[in-house]
Amino acid sequence: NSPRHDDFLTSMTFISGEKRRWCDCDQCNMIPTDIREAISRHKRQQMITEPLVRSQDRVLIKREECIAVWKWTIPLNAEPLIDFGNNHSIIFVAHLPENVEVLSIGKGVTGSAEETSGRTKVDWKNGKAYLIPANGGKALGWVQQQTEETNAANKNKQFQPMIIYIIKVPLSEGKVHEIVSEGDSASDKNWVTTLFRILDQAIRSQLSLSKNNGEKGNDKFGTTINQGSSGIELREVHSLNIGDIMKRLESSKKL
């Protein structure tokens, strides 16, 4: 607490407080006032005119018995979050704004010209669930943007973010089927059991289709499941069940 020590601390930029509100550099008082004001105006104008770089958000809603439920919030034109397709998963589309289109990321470094030019349209619908088959660990991600037809007409419109839930099960289809087969009817109302059964039925159905088409399997994931960039739409009853489970998990999380 010596005067010399206090003088030293006062000279430090990061604690100078009100003395240097405009700038943290040691030379700010040497810059003429009119130049400082011009720089301030330029910085304020940049904040107003430069495009806002939005980001997507991912929150864990629930994890239980190997099942993890994630909520993704995807604003318009936001940089994509990246996931990986090591195992089968389910996506539930909780909210898809009107006059937007959803794109799946392309190959290459995210945000690069190669990746953005390779993005493909995803045909998702509100309230629908989709099986996203394992792809050997390749990157997955989605963005939403205005369609070309509505871009000009809705230039100043505020778009709500897209909300999806991703249900991840880090197990092979064989293990999922084994868990379901060993289950009992007394646990039918358990949300984990319900999701396991929906996933198992979706996988079994698609494997059957693939085998009927004479497709060969691979060592890691069994018979190949064909899919577009949208994944595979599940039955209406499964979408309704998953939507109800997501609402219940969100409600319990708020308690």
Structure description:
The protein is of the alpha+beta class and 255 residues long. It contains seven helices and 13 strands. The chain has helices at residues 3-11, 33-49, 113-117, 148-151, 173-181, 191-212, 236-254, and strands at residues 57-64, 67-74, 83-84, 89-95, 100-104, 120-122, 129-132, 139-140, 142-146, 162-168, 217-218, 222-223, 232-233. A six-stranded antiparallel sheet has the order 1-2-10-4-7-13, covered by helices on one side. A three-stranded antiparallel sheet has the order 6-5-9. The longest helix is centred in the last third of the chain and has 22 residues, at 191-212.
Question: How are the SSEs ordered, and which strands pair?
Answer:
Elements: H1 3-11, H2 33-49, E1 57-64, E2 67-74, E3 83-84, E4 89-95, E5 100-104, H3 113-117, E6 120-122, E7 129-132, E8 139-140, E9 142-146, H4 148-151, E10 162-168, H5 173-181, H6 191-212, E11 217-218, E12 222-223, E13 232-233, H7 236-254
Antiparallel strand pairs: 1-2, 2-10, 3-8, 4-7, 4-10, 5-6, 5-9, 7-13, 11-12
Helix pairs in contact: 5-6, 6-7
Question: What is the compact description of this entry?
Answer:
With 255 residues, this protein is of the alpha+beta class. The protein is 33% helix and 22% strand. It has helices at 3-11, 33-49, 113-117, 148-151, 173-181, 191-212, 236-254; strands spanning 57-64, 67-74, 83-84, 89-95, 100-104, 120-122, 129-132, 139-140, 142-146, 162-168, 217-218, 222-223, 232-233.
